[in-house]
Amino acid sequence: MTKDPYINSPNEARLHHSNMEPIQYTKRIPLKLKMTRCASEKVRTACRMLIVTVLVSGNALGAMISTERSMNPYPRKKQVPTFTSANLAPPYLEHAYFEGHDIFPFQADAASFNLANAWWLAEASTLAYADEAFAAERFKKAGFDEVRFFDKRSTQCFVASNREFAVVAFRGSEVWRRRGANDGHDLAADFTTNANFWLVDWAHGAKVHRGFKNALDEVWEDLFPFLAVLQRRGCKIWMTGHSLGAALATLAADRYGEVQGVYTFGSPRVGNRRFKEGFSIRTYRFVSGNDIVARLPPPGFYAHVGEPRFIDYEGSIRDRPTGSAPAFSPCGGECGEKISLEKNNLPKTPVFVPDAVIDHVPLLYAILIWNNLVDVRHSAE
Fold it and tell me: Alpha carbon of 302 to those of 33, 202, 343, 368: distances in Å?
């Protein structure tokens, strides 16, 4: 009798072929086939486990990299554009305002010079030239909850605030706002001819520029109570501005008094020596190269206030000028040195736009300060 490969013993065979009630049993798999299938199952299980492990490890690694990048982002320098008469004047609608604010947060309680704050306020000073809707959207993207625009005949300023601090950004001279094709020589002439050198009385026996004082008076009646409300809420008040806006920020800070700090960019002189002696607000005054407005009004009757920060011909920030100013410059060592946009990968200045005007461009201040901030970050790593 042929052995049934699925029956394991003779007893099972006899019962199977007899007339007795058949025995119900489960079909058995040959041992060799069973071992082969078992091995295959183990391989498949191992493969599944390997795939799951790889996926889990990949996700974990990706999460670690993402967390590392969020905790230690790698900021990059920004390219300085080639300034011509076509793109010299603000507003700069293509600029990504406050890009990188999450990497370098504003230090609301800073009691000394802070480069991150300088960059924030340079961005705010540049943005102040834009229209209300455009500027408000950018301020809010940077983390400000409320943006208030004060607009009078010759004076405009933004107050952007959140729970911790408020930035008061005064707009600079209107000749900088783009309305059509402007010639660089015309802009330089406007800066010179529009300067009003008359001194008028200020607090504590000081005297200040009459045009600047009148411009501040236009908005002060509305601005002062608004700032007082913010301060009662616990906001630290910071003031800033470029060009004429820098002058207004200086006067506003001196008049208001309780200001955490002031950063100005391309500021003209605001008052006489008596004003400088009585000025006690923590102020940092940036001067880029041979900025034309930093020479005005001429020294003698007027004096600069605040701690200077000079941006040299390589785009680096220094506490003092690294070279003497040109002989024709009435800076008296207060205006820094000429900036060359041909060095340090900076683009060549078009010949029809004077360097002294290029040096005054608000966007140039913002970009060069950001690049210095990146250098400091990388050197610390």
Answer: 102, 14, 33, 28
273 three-class SS? helix
For residue 3, being part of any structural domain is answered with no
Instruction: Decide which of 24, 39, 69 is a domain's last residue.
Output: 69
Structural domain ending residue among the three candidates 49, 69, 89 = 69
Q: Specify whether 241 is located in the same domain as 361.
A: yes
pLDDT truncated to tens, each residue of the chain (381 aa)? Answer: 544 444 444 444 444 444 445 545 445 555 444 455 555 666 566 666 666 555 555 554 444 444 444 455 678 999 998 887 778 888 999 999 999 999 999 999 999 999 999 999 999 999 999 999 999 999 999 999 999 999 998 899 999 999 999 999 999 986 655 554 444 443 443 343 355 678 999 999 999 999 999 999 999 999 999 999 999 999 999 999 999 999 999 999 999 999 999 999 999 999 999 999 999 999 999 999 999 999 989 888 999 999 999 999 889 999 988 654 443 333 444 444 444 444 444 444 444 578 888 999 999 999 999 999 999 988 876
| Structural domains of the chain, count | 2
Q: Identify whether 1 is part of a domain.
A: no
Confirm whether 340 is domain-assigned.
Answer: yes
Tokens of 12: 């099972």
User: Measuring CA to CA, which residue among 83, 115, 96, 98 is closest to residue 359?
Assistant: 83
- Answer yes or no: do 302 and 164 share one domain: yes
Phi-psi region of 208 (alpha: psi -120 to 50; beta: other; left: phi over 0): beta
Domain for residue 244, yes or no?
Answer: yes
Same domain, 321 and 223: yes
d(CA 146, CA 233) in angstroms, rounded, equals 13
Long-range contact pairs involving 315-320 (C-beta distance under 8 Å, separation at least 24): 315/80, 315/339, 315/343, 315/344, 315/346, 315/368, 315/371, 315/372, 316/372, 317/115, 317/286, 317/368, 317/369, 317/372
